[in-house]
């Protein structure tokens, strides 16, 4: 297939998905970059050194060892900084597309910091669905970096949704359709206190508790996840945000939001 025909097909696909050039330019200014590197596998990038990719048809020799199940078309979200923003963003994506979460892995990374990176596989029967899911996730990531705070001493991460979906279920055990929240901090000592503050602040039910040698990739952080009434979950997260900024601030400069807080 010659290059002109490839470009024509790609244009048809992007037009069908409603991806316009002006949208690409807008995303570029917000930290996303569109497919300008000349590879059909490349979708774009976002904050946290996050890249979005697709494979239209995974080689049969790989599909079994990758445990892809029935899917051959996959979307891939991978980031070096952050796990919560990527997970919450992909949760948005699967709500809006005909896709399924295959796996979520949280490698120890953060470019040498205290926490995790992320690797998420999204399965689809049609590659256009996989690509659309990746696009939606990349667009959502800046929002979910809004309540990630940091300074030279460490980081704080807080997430909330009124209705959890399949990515949160796969990654963190969230009950589908219910409000779900997360507190996370490194150093782990701060995360421990934030977990206690969150459950004391509102009537929530603990879903998971991860510490450096129990549930994380030996990262220096503590992560608490919880569910309950939407108002209670939000209240618990907000109480932890206020306390966490004070504690991490005692170790260095005032922790700053990466974008704009949304909780």
Please describe what this structure looks like.
The chain has 8 helices and 11 strands. The chain has 263 residues and is α+β, with helices and mostly antiparallel strands. The protein folds into 2 domains: 40-145, Alpha-Beta Plaits (2-Layer Sandwich); 146-262, BMC (bacterial microcompartment) domain (Alpha-Beta Plaits), CATH 3.30.70.1710. The strands form 2 sheets. It has a 6-stranded antiparallel sheet with strand order 9-10-8-7-6-11, with helices on both faces. The chain has a 5-stranded antiparallel sheet with strand order 1-2-3-5-4. Helix 4 crosses helix 5 (127-144). The longest helix is centred in the last third of the chain and has 20 residues, at 230-249. The N and C termini lie far apart (49 Å). Residues 16-33 have low confidence and may be disordered.
Please tell me the total number of domains.
2
Largest sheet: 6 strands, antiparallel
Task: Order the strands across the largest sheet as they lie in space.
Answer: 9-10-8-7-6-11
Count of DSSP H/I helices? 8
CATH top level of the largest domain is Alpha Beta
Rounded to the nearest angstrom, the distance between the terminal CA atoms is 49 Å
The gyration radius over C-alpha positions equals: 19 Å
CATH 2nd-level architecture of the largest domain: 2-Layer Sandwich
Strand content: 25-35%
In percent, how helical is the residue content?
25-40%
CATH fold-level name of the largest domain: Alpha-Beta Plaits
Shape: globular
Return the structural class: alpha+beta
| Series of H and E elements | HHEEHEHEEHEEHEHEEHE
- Total beta-strand segments: 11
- Name given to the CATH homologous superfamily of the largest domain: BMC (bacterial microcompartment) domain
Low-confidence segments, given as residue ranges, are 16-33
Mean pLDDT: 89
